[in-house]
Write a structure and sequence with these properties.
By secondary structure, the protein is an alpha+beta fold. The protein has seven helices and eight strands, in the order αββββαβαβαββααα. It has an eight-stranded mixed beta sheet, sandwiched between helices.
């Protein structure tokens, strides 16, 4: 994978927040972060910045202890979520935390997240972290990372989601599809008995959906164009 410049990642983060607001994946809260390649530093937006208007230049640089090294304003209250994942997962390059309403429903019932949409198999077995409070401390961040384990996604009890992946555009795609799979599950359940994607179907679907590079780029460009036309970018 080509190593991106810090300037490019800053712009991706700004665009991603605006696009996620447009797609109803985050509102005034929630945040996406990314590693600065070749360093132990993280880019994340300021706590009080509007997710609908944040710019690349506003992004903070923080270290893995949460100290703000560059930029104005404090980091988000739940920066500990991101830092816990980065400390424990060298393979993760970008982290997203939001409060998707449909996905979060699965933390409120005794039912695991299932796959109803074909791409939804990626979210089967998504673990749920039991702490419903704000994740503010180093210890809480480490606990989230432990729940996440080697997974790419986890839910937070009565709270939201954590996406831990390879790039900022991938945070966007997976946030979008996790929520749409959850929404489809809820809607389908009103029509009759659910018919989840089977293990046999999962193996067939991996050909199209397990490797996401093409789909990540396609989805990212579609929503960038949509946001540009709407005047959000």
């Amino acid at each position: 994978m080509t190593q991106l410049s810090e300037a490019t990642i800053r712009q991706q983060l700004a665009d991603c927040h605006r696009m996620m607001v447009m797609a109803d994946l985050i509102d005034y809260s929630g945040h996406v972060s990314a590693r600065i390649p070749g360093t132990k530093r993280i880019l994340i937006l300021p706590r009080d910045a509007s997710r609908a208007a944040v710019t690349a230049d506003e992004m903070l640089v923080v270290d893995l202890d949460g100290t703000v090294l560059e930029g104005k304003g404090p980091a988000p209250t739940e920066t500990a979520i991101h830092l816990g994942v980065y400390r424990h997962r060298d393979d993760v390059q970008a982290v997203g935390h939001g409060h998707p309403p449909m996905s979060t429903l699965f933390t409120m019932v005794d039912r695991p997240m299932i796959a109803i949409r074909n791409y939804g198999f990626r979210f089967i077995g998504c673990p749920c972290h039991p702490d419903p409070t704000h994740i503010r401390t180093v210890e809480q961040g480490d606990a989230v990372a432990k729940t996440l384990g080697k997974h790419r996604y986890c839910l937070l009890r009565a709270h939201g989601s954590v996406i831990a992946v390879n790039s900022v555009p991938e945070v966007f795609l997976d946030s979008l599809e996790m929520e749409e799979n959850a929404r489809s599950t809820v809607h389908a359940s009103t029509l009759g008995r659910l018919k989840p994607i089977t293990p046999e179907e999962v193996e067939l679907l991996k050909v199209s959906f397990a490797r996401n590079d093409y789909r990540v780029a396609k989805t990212w460009e579609h929503y960038r164009a949509k946001a540009t036309q709407a005047g959000l970018l």
